[in-house]
Amino acid sequence: MMGVETDIHAALMARVETIPTALPMSLPGVPFTPPEGDYIRVTHRRNEAERKGLLGRDGMDHMGILYIDLFRRTGPNTWQATSDTIADDIAAHFPLDLRLTRGTTRIIVYKTVLGDSEPDLGGTHFRVQIKVFYNTL
Asked: Within a 13 Å sphere around the CA of 4, how many CA atoms are in the beta-carbon half?
């Protein structure tokens, strides 16, 4: 039997792998060499679980954020508007109230937003961050 956190991660990664894009993807725990061109980096951050209900009879509420960073090679056609358009398409793959299930664990996406947009530290790419907030049902 898998644990809740393992099931959450597996459900999120299964959804990530269906993002309709041809861009290479860096997934947690999978070796990846960033290309010179555009790519996506996925990071999963769990938050501390909290008790549900006043008496805690309802179990624990597990929550976290899935970060999806779109990296676009800097150049004459790479500016925030075109990068945001691609990021919007990725974000649309995680709509409000999306329900994902793995084993007996059910999660819901309660917010997806575009976060920071900035050049990366090396100056070779422009990064747009998509944040997917979730919790268990």
From this structure: 15
Which of these, 74, 83, 48, lies nearest to 62 by C-alpha position?
48
Q: Which residues contact 70 (CB under 8 A, 6 or more apart)?
A: 23, 38, 40, 83, 86, 87, 90, 127, 128, 129, 130
Q: Is 33 helix (H, G, I), strand (E, B) or coil?
A: coil
Helix-then-strand count for the chain, H and E? 2, 8
Tell me the pTM: 0.87
117, β-bridge pairs: 128
C-alpha–C-alpha distance, residues 80 and 96, integer Å: 24
Q: Each residue of 98-116: pLDDT tens digit?
A: 999 999 899 999 999 998 7
